[in-house]
């Protein structure tokens, strides 16, 4: 739960902001109607995600509330009834995240959107690639103000090394002119690697040449900024590109994820599973397992389908915990597939630990205890379908042998 400080003398505005923000389960609000209350709140707590403050309060008519929040290093959004261009520019230069006027309901939705973006940014990694230390420090400072996790590199070659070390980096902001490997060569290298196909790339250059802009975009960059840029434009470009990436991911997930368990569905397995066995795109060898919840029909018959659905969701959550680095698919009904490209010994250890966890877990509010059966094919075949068929046949061997066990080639492991 993230805390948001709201400093506003209007009761109506406080209620609107509080309702919109607390409708999001990630947030809770501390409401203050004057500077004195805000000062007490900030002295009492140092973990506010953001402060939303009015410029004109009865005991602080000249923006003292903004100065107070910034002095406590709390990211600050101004929400005011008056628009003044000079004041706005002055406050943005002082470090305010945004200056929003109370014009309509959309203004309050803007506040909510910004607050939620700050939450997401806490786990969002951005790589800044710039050979000028002064320019790099400036860009990193802007990003950290918005709660991003920031990584740095001084040229394209260092950037590729940083991407290898931190494969969850979601955005690269890179200058054009750099030694060893420039920004143009960097974006080409990134787009040639499938692992980074969804990475957001924003190019920078002191040269405002439109040809350079189009060259970057055609090579795979998402956006381009000419230096020097105003920080408000910089933030808008960063946020819009991240939101576009998230929208694409949401659309992709709706097609590829099982809506109940939120693991991959069979469609995704059919379209992408084979690439794991392709030496050019994957690892060339995989361990395929079929995992089935024992006696699941009796759960639906005795407790209803809602309970059965809850059990499957909790079961899938256990799978994602023990096989976080593997491909997990809901194959159909209560049957799941886990495909691993890791070491065989490590996989079987995780599989055994997973089965122990299943047996010791009480599922749903009915506190049901269950077991599962597993068939494994670790031998390399000519294609994935053959491995799936072998794993599936071994699963049914485990079922016929009494359930609650693993069947693999020359191996039968019983549990319980």
TrEMBL record:
Enzyme Commission code(s) on record: 2.7.7.65
GGDEF domain segment(s): 284-411
Catalytic activity field: 2 GTP = 3',3'-c-di-GMP + 2 diphosphate
Gene Ontology molecular function, alphabetical: diguanylate cyclase activity
Positions of post-translational 4-aspartylphosphate modification: 54, 175
Cross-referenced InterPro entries: CheY-like_superfamily, Diguanylate_Cyclase, GGDEF_dom, Nucleotide_cyclase, Rev_trsase/Diguanyl_cyclase, Sig_transdc_resp-reg_receiver
PANTHER family to which the protein is assigned, alphabetical: DIGUANYLATE CYCLASE DGCM-RELATED, REGULATORY COMPONENTS OF SENSORY TRANSDUCTION SYSTEM
NCBIfam families, sorted: GGDEF
Name by which UniProt lists this protein: diguanylate cyclase
Source organism of this protein record: Alteromonas australica
